[in-house]
Amino acid sequence: MNKYRSHNCNELRKKNVGNEVxxxxxxxxxxxxxNLLFVDLRDNYGITQCIIEKENKQFxxxxxxxxxxxxxxxxxxxxxxxxxxxxxxxxxxxxxxxKNYEILGAxxxxxxxxxxxxxxxxxxxLKYRFLDLRRKKIHENIILRSKVISxxxxxxxxxGFLEFQTPILTSSSPEGARDFLVPSRLNPGKFYALxxxxxQFKQLIMVSGFDKYFQIAPCFRDEDARADRSPxxxxxxxxxxxxxxxxxxxxxxxxxxxxxxxxxxNKKLMFGKFPKISYSEALLKYGSDxxxxxxxxxxxxxxxxxxxxxxxxxIFKKLIKSGSKARCIxxxxxxxxxxxxxxxxxxxxxxxxxxxxxxxxxxxxxxxxAKGPVGKFFSKEALEEIMKxxxxxxxxxIFLACNKxxxxxKITSLARDKIAKELGLIDENIFxxxxxxxxxxFEKDELTKKIKFSHNPFSMPQGDIDKINFDKxxxxxxxxxxxxxxxxxxxSGAIRNHIPELMYKLFSIAGYEKKxxxxxxxxxxxxxxxxxxxxxxxxxxxxxxxMLLANEKNIREVTMFPMNQNAQDLMMKAPSDVNEEQLxxxxxxxxxxx
RNA sequence: GGGGGUGUAGCUCAGUUGGUUAGAGCGAUCGCCUGUCACGCGAUAGGUCGAGGGUUCGAGUCCCUUCACUCCCGCCA
Length: 594
Hints:
Largest sheet: 8 strands, mixed
Number of helices: 16
Structural class: alpha+beta
Helix content: 25-40%
Strand content: 15-25%
Shape: globular
Strand order of the largest sheet: 6-9-10-24-23-22-19-12
């Protein structure tokens, strides 16, 4: 026992009654009855009720102590009478009668209450993060994060993976996100970059013969934030394996995620074995490469219907002639939904920048017919064809949109979420994982019309290498894959291209000359020509995994010291100015736009 | 870079068609209270209504500009 405490605040039970104990913690709450004062003393482990009466010389002083003051309390554990037992807390059967106390850490007037379920502005929370972190929910989230990470570590160790650290100061890479740059003092005018991910290093670890690597790796990307995306930095479970095919990586990660999610959440897994959905199928059926599979709605392409003579929906017909697609979402048995339900969704779609969503409901009196603003444009036969194609039945409704491929994917994807929410189709108590596979190696930049890597330039193209048709780069698929859970992109990975000639070839398609590749990826391209094993890996996002497990919508809720949306740390006041001396040492001068 | 939301007491919020002295709960301070666990009761203090400009006899409320926070689009291989 040290001088601060003999027990923590969640330790004392009935068996301790009669003991003299020393507790230390924060004053969570006081209930002052004038001649009798209850104090809830809180620490990391729990709460113990302490009590002081006016007979105690220190009573008057104690009454005045500010909440959140840190105190040491010496007292006797006493039994609570049956009617005063508090079942809400673990120590609720006893209380500590205060003999003596001592203030260990005084507390000023608080900018925000700690013991409260109130929400506070992000600004206050971030500025006083150390206070915010005392609050129950977020305190528990951070503890959960720690437990999840150490569980993952031990599982990875059991699976034979070795954990290695890779450099934080490395070189800038031309592909991908914007780099954070760090000026070099010893090399004036030159810059390090913080790693966007340890991508090249982990491949070099494979070339070095270590076989299986992992790391809870910090990653740095200078891009704008989102609710599920921290500005600046985040963590990945980075892993890489030698002599593996795609399925080998899947086996490891699937097992790891299933055990992790079962251990840390009560929610059910929708699939024991993650379904595999190709990128192109995902875009067609869900409008997105990160579909929420809890949502049963499916998007159908019905472009062909509009070439029929007995369909007179001229706006769509015209758009389709100029290259647009028509796609629809069927909602089951919605014939009795009020007109406002449909109109609200149409209005919502317009708010999203789409031209709206047309709709009709399939009815049958004598013949099949369609009710709704655009129902009249479809003949009985056309409706029957739509029903055949989409599985729609009498009583179901159909929402339609028509636009260019990219646009229609975007709006139908959003509409799929929106309609499911309106109809309450999403079971919040489920985790629905899936693999998205068969990503294209390249895509066309809409602005520049140039061919560029669609994801990771180091991915291995699919098929027999000798037979790949490099003249049609957009048709080349890659051994590139993502894991998606409940519509959240959890990780992406690939089987890597370990053949230098093939790498040069692919980079040349994306507009990089051999010289440039040698220059920008010198470490890796060189290494690959000295006996590189076939290898592959993946990197699940730790923050997002914890976010799903903690049932939080915002990544800040599972991050100990997050930055705000403008990538500022309001508590530490980062980023900050530096003095002339520092700049001079780095051979830098500032030119700031007004 | 673009679009939306929010901004009123230390904190969370209310504030009507533009109309007297801008309110409530929590917190703070003071007083009363021996079984509370969101203790109770009474009193007091606490406001540049984010900032600046405009319209008006009169602006928390209407208009313009701007700032902060946040959500989304772009971006994130």
